[in-house]
Amino acid sequence: MKITYYGHSALLVEAEGVRVIIDPFLSGNPNSGISPETINVDAVLLTHGHSDHFGDSLEIAKQNGCPIFAVYELADYCQSKGAEVMHMNTGGSCTYKGFTVKFTQAFHSSSIMVGDSWIYAGQPAGILLTIGGKTLYHAGDTALFGDMRLIGERNAIDVAALPIGDMLTMGPDDALLAARWLRADKVIPLHYNTFPAIAQDGAEFAGRLGQEGIQGYPLKPGESIEI
């Protein structure tokens, strides 16, 4: 499994000839370093509807002729905009083109701004993506919650991608505890340094993970790891 970071919470995951992008906030992200027109994938996965995660999902899905996997209400919205979708919900899983997606709970909110109004976009979610015999857990925008222990117990997570920005999600202290509970020995920090309100030191967080025997990967946009 190869994982490439494109800033904020966007990850491109590749294995066995399959490519999947999660939360592709690219064109509006000053740190992404890539244009959505260059993205070639077999699926788009969304944790929730906020613009810094929904991003360029519709454009990427349409140009690739691929589905968007999302919680039911968000998938329905994408379908109304002409995208192919996979309607899912918390706790459900789906296997498609050799990979499996399972949605977990997340503690956050989820909505889409349309004009001057907010549209409810269903429950926020985390994502367990299994591909090429490896499992990535993308926590989305979540607070720390006790059932992360259960997620770690029930799933052999090879790498966890966790928000550390604080203010709107977990901060570094809670993310460190989440990493322990998830039993992942590799962690990619997400959702930080995109805006002043979520400024954090990714290298410092990785150092704290290291003290727990966990390998931290504070990737710069465009950098990859292989597991």
Outline:
The chain is of the alpha/beta class and 227 residues long. Helix content is 22%, strand content 31%. It has helices spanning 51-54, 57-64, 72-80, 148-154, 172-182, 202-211; strands at 2-5, 11-15, 18-22, 43-45, 68-71, 85-88, 93-96, 99-105, 111-114, 117-120, 125-131, 134-138, 159-163, 186-190, 215-216, 224-226.
Which series of helices and strands comes N to C?
EEEEHHEHEEEEEEEHEHEHEE
CATH topology name, in short, is: Metallo-beta-lactamase, Chain A
Read across the widest sheet, the strand sequence of neighbours is 6-5-4-3-2-1-16
Are there runs of 5+ residues with pLDDT below 50, and where?
A: none
> Would you tell me the overall average pLDDT?
97
* C-alpha Rg (nearest Å): 16 Å
Number of helices: 6
Report the end-to-end length measured between terminal Cα atoms.
5 Å
CATH superfamily: Ribonuclease Z/Hydroxyacylglutathione hydrolase-like
Characterize the largest beta sheet: strand count, sense, and whether it forms a barrel.
Answer: 7 strands, mixed
Instruction: Assign the CATH architecture.
Output: 4-Layer Sandwich
SSE class: alpha/beta
Strand count = 16
Strand content: 25-35%
Question: How helical, in percent, are the residues?
Answer: 10-25%
Report the principal-axis shape.
globular
Please, how many domains?
Answer: 1
Q: Mind telling me the CATH class? A: Alpha Beta
